Amino acid sequence: xxxxxxxxxxxxxxxxxxxxxxxxxxxxxxxxxxxxxxxxxxxxxxxxxxxxxxxxxxxxxxxxxxxxxxxxxxxxxxxxxxxxxxxxxxxxxxxxxxxxxxxxxxxxxxxxxxxxxxxxxxxxxxxxxxxxxxxxxxxxxxxx
Length: 144
What we know:
By secondary structure, the protein is mainly alpha-helical. About 65% of the residues lie in helices and about 10% in strands. It contains 6 helices and 2 strands. It has a two-stranded antiparallel ribbon. Helix 3 packs across helix 4 (about 65-75).
C-alpha cells in the first residue's frame, strides 16, 4: 500500500489539473499556445504593468526564468514592454489588447473548471477550500 501523499503533492496535482484543463481549453479555442510558466505570469501581472523583477518575485522564480517567459509572450503579441514612468532604467510588462482578450478567456475557462470541480466535490467543499487557502495566503506571502 503506497504511503499517503503529503499536502504539497496534492496541491501540486490540483494545480496541474487546472493548468492542463486551461491549456487544453485554450488550445481547443485556437488561442496562442503558452507554457504553464507563462500562464502563471499572466496570473500575477498588474493591469498597469509590472517589472520583470516583481514578476519573478511573485512567481517564485529567477529573474531569468521570468524574463524568458516575458520574452516568449512578447514574441507572440500577448505582452508588450513600456517605459516605467517611475524609473528611467525599468520597463513595465503589460498585456496587449490580444493579451487582454486571452486573459479574459482564460479567466472564464478557470471559472468553468472551478464549476466542474464543484460538481465533482461539492460547492460547499470548494467554498471551504477557497476560504482555507485564502486564510493561509493573505498577508503571509513568503512567510511560514
